[in-house]
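Internal tracking record. Fields below are filled automatically when a chain is submitted to the structure queue. Please do not edit lines marked as system-generated. If the sequence contains nonstandard residues, flag them in the REMARKS field before resubmitting.
Queue: standard
Priority: normal
Entity type: single polypeptide chain
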Amino acid sequence: MRKLPAFLLIAGMCLAQSGTRNGIDRSMFDTSCKPCDDFWRYATGAWLDKHPVPADRARWGKFDELAEANLERLKTILDGAAADRTATGDRRRAGDFYASCMDTASIEKAGTKPVEPLLARIAAIKTRRDLVVALVNLELENGLAPTRVINVSDPANADQVIAGIGVGGLSLPDRDYYFRDDARSKMIRDEFVQHAQKLLTLTGDSPAAAAAAARAVLAFETTFADSTLTNVARRDPYNRIHKMDFAAMEALAPAYDWKAAFALLKVSTDVAVNVSEPEFLKTFNRQLQEAPLDTWKTWLRWRVIADRSEYLAKPFYDEWFHFERTVLSGVTAQQARWKVCVSSTDATLGEALGRLYVEKHFPSEAQRRMQQLVANMRAALGEELQSADWLTPETRANAQRKLATFDPRIGYPTKWRDYSGVQVNRANYLADKESAILEERRFAAAKIGKKLDRTEWTMTPPTVNAYYTSARNSITFPAGILQPPFFDMEADNAVNYGAIGVVIGHEMGHGFDDQGSKYDADGNLKNWWTDQDRAKFEARAACVVKQFDSIDVGEGQHHTGKLVAGEAMGDLGGVTLAYKAYHKSLNGKEPPVIDGLTGDQRLFLAYARVWAANQRPEAMRRQLATDPHPLAKYRTNATLQNMPEFQRAFSCKLGDAMVRPPEQECRLW
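SYSTEM-GENERATED OUTPUT FOLLOWS
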């Protein structure tokens, strides 16, 4: 999640003048609920009651409000670009792409023609050699085949980009969707079969043939799912690191033509290769040798039509929406077409559109103030590490070095992506998308064998979010999140520390969470802990895991503690750091009481406000099953239950729901 600005110098020094406006909207409060019983409800309940989830959304919260506002801004930019026939470069390309998406008449008229070349290639498969050739050619597509050659940082030398073998082939959100035996999971699999049948029928299959094909698709994918790592197992980077040379990789799946795949992508076979999931590759090899050709052809046809259906005529889009959005997430109404097209342009030409967004909506002052706030939060974390008496001097020095080398990226990239290789035609939306996919695959493959570009971003500038990257040891805050309620230039410091300050601390914390702590200051996968310190760290992480495992979120459902541990640790660390940095900024002075709220109260209320969100039950179940982020309510309550600072601010006592017994409190540093 991401966004930020602030108004301070290095921690411990005086702040620049800030506003004294409260920044807290009391109309959000549910005063019938006591803050020590359910702080999330107390801080946001009235807003939640007045803002049900819109029909075209799976959830609605403060993040979504800001994202919606950014969509409106992007629409204005794209409408102008599309209407300007004299536009050139990025502006012309983004405007034309948006126009092609908005031209639903041309999309309807085209029917299935845009995917017929791909379907014809699959229909032409007659032998197993033909199958391999077809799969190799799909390397230029995006995730249609079970495996693909990708670029990854060398785990032992992050500055070097090597080849990776990514795995996929699953149409359901996660591998466990194929195996859970509860009633809802079975219903989703039944719905998936019906969904596949309907889409295949739209391509010309008879109902009976489509029904048989749909069942075959589910069975085929279940075989791949059985060899895929669970989402919890994937959180341990050591489970995904299997570095080898080309010959060793080739030996895992000799039935595939790896040399042809590397040649197609212009990747040398001399580079090292990381195979993320060797067992999956072995299953892939068996399927190439043993699965009937008709099964492969049926599955490949399905993959093409399923992946492209949201870019095709209305019957395909409607069926895509029904399963992906209604069945899986509970959404009942489609978004307005302009929202679909703005989002598609952002996803496809993100830095081209982002550049236009930044020029219009991101002032340089916001970037400067954000840099100041990052510096203060970095200083606060440095003090935490220095005072952590459970760390040995060796581990503490390594941690401080990692913190000192954090690379904060704020607002937008220092250099912009070149999209000149993407061919855009206003009259052919899917062809535009295909061109972008092809260019992206070539762009990504060209990095293999070269030095890592540490300046690259993986989020677009208008995105309302933020992220940490282990290989780059970088924290990134796009321009899209650097607005209220995350950062408010007119609000007092407590509110900004409680919102964007927590986001900064959260992303910094990822460098030291259950995943990030396994990478050193240079981004290499390397143990920089002493054995005794690592054991103590794991015990602290286990406290968070146990807490989230134990929370009943309704209907007997729970988070998977090991899945959400990293994000939950980020939240706890983020609030802790923001609180300390805020008090450091006061230089010993008492913060003002504004609108009856103390500085500490405003900080914690600002944090809770960020997580004001309603969510559909289907979306909640999907999040619990697949997402490493806890539900919004528990990002507030479960985090603050561990903080005596919060309990003092609202006079909470032992026995209150918002107070964990001291021996159960989770602490990071």
